[in-house]
């Protein structure tokens, strides 16, 4: 079956600075998926995390390892095989506790598997083999030397709750609809990308094992071909030899069919990797378009504010002009009234003179 993911969570990944052995160095720009994998063939538990196509965590769990909570959202463990200390920053204390519980559970499972393996080796070994190979029953492996319980406290506490969210200022309906449409497409692409990343993670973990199996099958096929050639060269072949040849030919055909199937699986994996790259490119393009739209919205909002200020200034000027015009009209009315009185006076004078 190969390696299968059995538990996943999202966290920010850090590694200890190898020069200072004190400061944390982030290995992911954002929260990534961190998964526990179980290899049923070798009875091994591993912690694996990918950032894009790069493996930033590949740690085999051993009984000597210890996962330490250094804060309510941050935990760490030492991997002496990789000669580093990994740190994980979670979004909540519940996620950290769940991850720590799984670590303890799989650590105990690894311990039990190791004990069963040692018991099996002791039961199957003979007294002579024990005296000749006593040192080989306890080989120095990464599992024997992995994990040092070393606890390193980061200089600054990891806090993911300090991120501020800014509400967008409402603007014309068309720009908001376009932005929401692109955000929806971006969210869908992120979901697809996460699924493909998980599939790629699982497939990548099995590629090495498949390659080893392919090489073993190819060696077996070459050996069988040589055996068939040798049998064909032997004179006076018996019925048993012919039967063996037939069986060997069938075995070769089965191996060739399995080799072909493995090659097809490898081709499918390559296609999935290419699709994941294309989706990442589309996601980056949509993110750029979204940023461009937000920038244009900000510019349009600035222009709208400027126009509103101009309109307000124009209204004030218009109101001032109306007041001035009203005053002028009142003044003109007064002058016209005075002229009317003067005209009436002159008319009376002219009538008096004529009489």
UniProtKB/TrEMBL annotation:
The keyword Coiled coil applies. One of its GO terms (molecular function) is G protein-coupled glutamate receptor binding. GO terms for cellular component: cytoplasm; postsynaptic density. Residues 200-324 form a coiled coil. Residues 123-154 have a biased composition (Polar residues). Gene3D superfamilies: 1.20.5.1700, Pleckstrin-homology domain (PH domain)/Phosphotyrosine-binding domain (PTB). Residues 116-154 are annotated as: Disordered. Residues 1-110 form the WH1 domain. Keywords: Coiled coil, Cytoplasm, Synapse. One of its GO terms (biological process) is G protein-coupled glutamate receptor signaling pathway. InterPro entries: Homer (IPR045027), Homer_EVH1 (IPR044100), PH-like_dom_sf (IPR011993), WH1/EVH1_dom (IPR000697). It is found in: Cytoplasm; Postsynaptic density. CDD domains: EVH1_Homer_Vesl. SMART domains: WH1. Belongs to the Homer family. This is Homer protein homolog 1 isoform X2. The lineage of its organism: Eukaryota, Metazoa, Chordata, Craniata, Vertebrata.
């Amino acid at each position: 079956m190969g390696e299968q993911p059995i538990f996943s969570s999202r966290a920010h990944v850090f590694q200890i600075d190898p020069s200072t052995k004190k400061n944390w160095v982030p290995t992911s720009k954002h929260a990534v998926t961190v998964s526990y994998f179980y290899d049923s063939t070798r009875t091994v538990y591993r912690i694996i995390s990918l950032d894009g196509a790069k493996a930033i965590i590949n740690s085999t769990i051993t009984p000597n390892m210890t996962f330490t909570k250094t804060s309510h959202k941050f935990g760490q463990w030492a991997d002496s095989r990789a000669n580093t200390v990994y740190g994980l920053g979670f979004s909540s204390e519940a996620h950290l506790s769940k991850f720590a519980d799984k670590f303890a559970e799989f650590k105990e499972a690894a311990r039990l598997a190791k004990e069963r393996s040692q018991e099996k080796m002791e039961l199957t070994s003979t007294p002579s083999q024990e005296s000749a190979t006593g040192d080989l029953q306890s080989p120095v492996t990464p599992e024997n030397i992995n994990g040092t319980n070393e606890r390193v406290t980061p200089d600054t506490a990891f806090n993911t709750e300090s991120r501020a969210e800014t509400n967008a200022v409402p603007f014309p309906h068309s720009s908001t609809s376009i932005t929401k449409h692109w955000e929806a497409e971006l969210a869908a692409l992120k979901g697809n990308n996460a699924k493909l990343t998980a599939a790629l993670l699982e497939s990548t973990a099995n590629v090495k094992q498949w390659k080893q199996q392919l090489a073993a099958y190819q060696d077996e096929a070459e050996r069988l071909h040589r055996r068939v050639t040798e049998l064909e060269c032997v004179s006076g072949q018996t019925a048993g030899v012919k039967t063996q040849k037939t069986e060997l030919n069938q075995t070769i055909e089965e191996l060739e069919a399995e080799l072909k199937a493995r090659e097809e699986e490898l081709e499918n994996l390559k296609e999935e990797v290419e699709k994941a790259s294309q989706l990442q490119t589309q996601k980056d393009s949509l993110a750029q378009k979204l940023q461009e739209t937000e920038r244009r919205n900000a510019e349009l909002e600035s222009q709208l504010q400027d126009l509103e200020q101009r309109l307000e200034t124009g209204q004030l000027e218009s109101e001032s002009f109306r007041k001035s015009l009203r005053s002028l009209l009142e003044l003109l009315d007064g002058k016209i009234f005075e002229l009317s009185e003067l005209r009436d006076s002159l008319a009376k004078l002219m009538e008096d003179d004529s009489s």
